[in-house]
């Protein structure tokens, strides 16, 4: 019989389409559950189950009452929590809701890493100004801060809202800037308890890496360890290049895997894809965070066949012998240089000649906002080669060919 799986994700998204295409190739039936309006009748023509992501318990109940599937896959942090709640109700193997929620809360994750004996920076959290905070807007919490430090919202991902501060003046500016971000409509509409808090922790110097893998009954299989060759020292932490295989020493890579396994156990994760971020310096491996989902957006293309493997794993198939990558590969997330309205780009053909693929995702007329407030990129560049160094050079060379035109965005009065 054909396997039937549920995919929980945003209404639109590159990964949603990639998983749908992968399911078709595998001969699986894939039902979508998305955060679309429940009043409109199938506006996208994909027969998706409409969910209210701001009501996770209600969404999980709707899934359990309306769906019968063999497995669940989630794209994104919030969908992963909904998937965990639904899987628990339906008796489907998946991570527990508590473990997924711990991944999404930087304060809880830090505490669990610390309690497991992992390296963690000094950290503390503060409630942003507003109702229940005990502070007026414009005031700041009274606390002893060591510099340099990093301020970050508890619940946002992809480095959104993450700012380094080297002194008191920068700390004040960063704290207020994050407070303003957390009051923006796109965040407020989600009604997340996490978005009331800002975490402050010591800055961790060192090289940043990422690990992509999958858990089967608590056992980790590593697909790739990615180097992030650009220094990520602030004031913002915009990721640009991922390259694999890692050029770290074998013993360092082994330490990364061991540390990641301990972090997964500390969080309580047990079954499904994971994406982990860490820093390495002379003291060892410092876990930054773990997400109970695969690498996001178009970046998944850097590991061809990832979606098919995840679907097969969710369906209960043995995927232990499937290899995703031969040789070296990398992706560049093309950064937004400044705020503005996207007009166009030149040099795509020249860039394309140097790499495997160039995809410009920005749309004409779209307002672009860089980090720390923004959460998007101009596009993506993909390359494969014989070595990580060759791939990195190809990505940088292709990026140099591109010239983007942005018009100044006029203020709204």
Indicate the topology.
Layout: E1 4-9, H1 14-26, E2 29-34, E3 49-50, H2 56-66, E4 71-74, H3 77-90, H4 97-104, H5 106-115, E5 123-127, E6 149-153, E7 163-165, H6 168-182, H7 185-188, E8 197-202, E9 207-216, E10 219-227, E11 241-244, H8 250-267, E12 272-281, E13 284-291, H9 306-314, E14 328-334, E15 340-346, H10 348-352, E16 357-360, E17 367-368, E18 379-385, H11 388-401, E19 403-407
Parallel strand pairs: 1-2, 1-4, 2-3
Antiparallel strand pairs: 5-8, 6-7, 6-8, 9-10, 9-12, 11-14, 12-13, 14-18, 15-17, 15-19, 16-18
Helix pairs in contact: 1-9, 2-3, 3-4, 5-8
Keywords:
3 domains, Rossmann fold, 4-stranded parallel sheet, single chain, D-amino Acid Aminotransferase, Chain A, domain 1, 29% helix, 413 residues, 11 helices, 27% strand
Counted by DSSP, the helix tally is: 11
Instruction: Compute the number of strand runs.
Output: 19
Tell me the major beta sheet. Answer: 4 strands, parallel
- What percent strand? 25-35%
Helix content: 25-40%
For the CA atoms, what is the radius of gyration? 21 Å
CATH top level class name of the largest domain: Alpha Beta
Question: What do we call the CATH topology of the largest domain?
Answer: D-amino Acid Aminotransferase, Chain A, domain 1
The CATH H-level homologous superfamily of the largest domain: ATP-grasp fold, B domain
Distance between the terminal alpha carbons, to the nearest Å? 59 Å
Which shape, going by the Cα principal axes?
A: globular
Q: Walk across the major sheet and give the strand order.
A: 3-2-1-4
**CATH architectural label of the largest domain:** 2-Layer Sandwich
Mean of all residue-level pLDDT scores: 92
Structural class: alpha+beta
Poorly predicted parts? 38-45
Assembly state (oligomeric): single chain
The total domain count is 3
């Amino acid at each position: 019989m054909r396997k039937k799986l549920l995919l929980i994700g945003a209404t639109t998204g590159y990964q949603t389409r990639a998983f749908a295409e992968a399911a078709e190739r595998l001969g699986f039936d894939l039902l979508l559950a998305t955060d679309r309006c429940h009043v409109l009748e199938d506006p996208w023509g994909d027969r998706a189950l409409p969910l209210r992501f701001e009501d996770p318990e209600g969404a999980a109940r709707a899934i359990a009452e309306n769906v019968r599937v063999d497995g669940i896959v989630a794209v994104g942090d919030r969908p992963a929590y909904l998937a965990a709640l639904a899987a628990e109700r339906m008796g489907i193997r998946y991570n527990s809701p508590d473990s997924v929620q711990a991944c999404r809360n930087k304060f809880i994750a830090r505490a669990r890493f610390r309690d497991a004996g992992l390296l963690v920076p000094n950290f503390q959290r503060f409630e942003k100004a507003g109702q229940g905070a005990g502070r007026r807007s414009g005031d700041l919490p009274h606390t002893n801060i060591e510099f340099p430090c990093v301020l970050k919202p508890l619940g946002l991902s992809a480095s959104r809202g993450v700012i380094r501060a080297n002194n008191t003046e920068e700390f004040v500016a960063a704290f207020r800037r994050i407070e303003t971000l957390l009051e923006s409509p796109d965040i407020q509409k989600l009604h997340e308890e996490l978005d009331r808090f800002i975490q402050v922790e010591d800055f961790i110097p060192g090289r940043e890496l990422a690990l992509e893998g999958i858990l089967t009954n608590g056992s980790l299989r590593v697909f790739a360890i990615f180097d992030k060759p650009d220094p990520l020292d602030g004031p913002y932490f915009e990721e640009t290049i991922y390259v694999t295989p890692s050029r770290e020493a074998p013993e360092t890579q082994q330490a990364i895997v061991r540390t990641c396994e301990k972090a997964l156990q500390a969080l309580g994760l047990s079954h499904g894809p994971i994406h982990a971020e860490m820093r390495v310096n002379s003291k060892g491996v410092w876990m930054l965070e773990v997400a109970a989902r695969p690498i996001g957006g178009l970046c998944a293309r850097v590991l061809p066949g990832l979606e098919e493997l995840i679907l097969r794993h969710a369906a209960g198939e043995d995927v232990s012998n499937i290899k995703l990558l031969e040789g070296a590969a990398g992706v560049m997330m093309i950064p937004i240089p400044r705020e503005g309205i996207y007009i166009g780009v030149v040099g795509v053909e020249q860039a394309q000649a140097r790499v495997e693929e160039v995809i410009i995702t920005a749309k004409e007329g779209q307002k672009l906002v860089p980090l720390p407030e923004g959460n998007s990129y101009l596009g993506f560049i993909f390359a494969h080669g014989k070595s990580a160094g060759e791939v990195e050079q190809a990505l940088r060379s292709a990026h140099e060919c591109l010239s983007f035109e942005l018009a100044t965005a006029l203020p709204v009065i």
